[in-house]
Specification:
CATH topology: Nonspecific Lipid-transfer Protein, Chain A
Family: Belongs to the UbiT family.
CATH class: Alpha Beta
Protein name: Ubiquinone biosynthesis accessory factor UbiT
Radius of gyration: 17 Å
Pathway: Cofactor biosynthesis; ubiquinone biosynthesis
Mean pLDDT: 87
Strand content: 15-25%
Function: Required for O(2)-independent ubiquinone (coenzyme Q) biosynthesis. Likely functions as an accessory factor.
Pfam family, one: SCP2
């Protein structure tokens, strides 16, 4: 899928998650909803699919960092949930490396799901809409940068 830098499978040490659970979680939700709203504004996300999200709640948990982002989609915007109550309509759980592999298109969510590296729980139809939306996104090509700069090379 991805022809650039390969993200290896990894799991952060357990103390990272133990520490991460103790930190405030709202920054994760604010960052994720800001990015999702930018994608909406750039028309990267199909409007017809977004209509199915209205009033739904979502949770993204990064297991090995202890971080999570709870949010909803309402009134045409993704909005952070400060104090989520009850089970979300759709939840995604995985280690950081799995989410990075999906984001970079190195792996597709189906492969990670069937390899038990990504957990998807909740409304099956909503999950299918999200998966199809991810598959349909055409990311702009970013310039390729060298992984190391040639400082001090002669």
């Amino acid at each position: 899928m991805n022809q650039g830098f390969t993200i290896p499978k990894f799991q952060l040490p357990g103390f990272v998650a133990r520490l991460g659970h103790k930190l405030p979680q709202w920054p994760h939700a604010v960052a994720l909803t800001t990015a999702l709203n930018a994608a909406v504004k750039m028309k990267l996300l199909p409007e017809d699919s977004l209509a199915a999200f209205d009033g739904k709640t979502f949770l993204v948990q990064v297991l090995d960092t202890g971080g999570q982002a709870a949010f909803t989609y309402r009134g045409g915007f993704f909005r952070p949930l400060w104090n989520p109550v009850g089970a979300p309509d759709l939840a995604f759980r995985a280690n950081l490396s799995a989410f990075l592999q999906v984001a970079s298109r190195q792996e597709d969510p189906d492969t990670l799901f069937f390899n038990r590296e990504l957990s998807i729980e909740g409304d099956t139809e909503l999950g299918l809409i999200v998966k199809n939306m991810l598959d349909a996104i055409e990311l702009p090509q970013l310039p390729k940068f060298p992984l190391s700069l040639p400082f001090g090379q002669r």
